[in-house]
Amino acid sequence: RGVIARGQTNSNMLTTTGSINLSGNYGDPARENLAKSLPDIARLIAAPGSTSRVFYTGIGDFDTHGYEEQPGVAAAKPTLTERLDSVMMAISAFVQDLKSSAINHWNDTAIVIYTEFGRRNLENQTFGTDHGHGFHMFVLGGQVLGGLKGSPVNASDLAAENLPQDIDYRTVFKVILDDWLQVNGAAVFDDFTAPANPPQLF
Q1: Considering the entire predicted model, what is its pTM?
Q2: How far apart are CA 29 and CA 27, in angstroms?
Q3: Domain residue limits at 49
Q4: Mean pLDDT of all residues in the chain?
Q5: Same domain, 6 and 90
Q6: DSSP 55
Q7: 119 secondary structure, DSSP code
């Protein structure tokens, strides 16, 4: 549910970036937080003379304990598919604008998509899923070494109540700190011992 984008930006420059034209369709900013926040982040990344390196934004309504894909009594809330569609639209527009000639920062930006908890494999009695164990993280960017990191999910994993944890999320963030932001990740995660051979992301 969180998105971190690293660019070359300064958060106090937002009022000076209105002249930067964006072409991506982020969705409805009145209804979707990413549709409101990601265009601002894109403009800040493009702002001349900016120095900030990390941005955070998020999106809610993923705590789908009930009626995950059925309106039912939760008709006022979007379904999981609708939430994922809104994320895909906003992220796709963000990537499109980062690649555009107006911004041209795709190769020096890393986007990290993550959640603070996963969901269980099995549906509960109210047609939703409860808090789980393992979850997926996504890292995007012009210098990201793509592909699956860790073991693929198998039939046995899907039959269990919870997905197993293969890579600790702190390992991913430490790699980003060390290899992308080039700061000491161990100083941030001082109570965590990362594996000797972490996934190579960049």
Answers
A1: 0.85
A2: 6
A3: 2-166
A4: 87
A5: yes
A6: E
A7: B
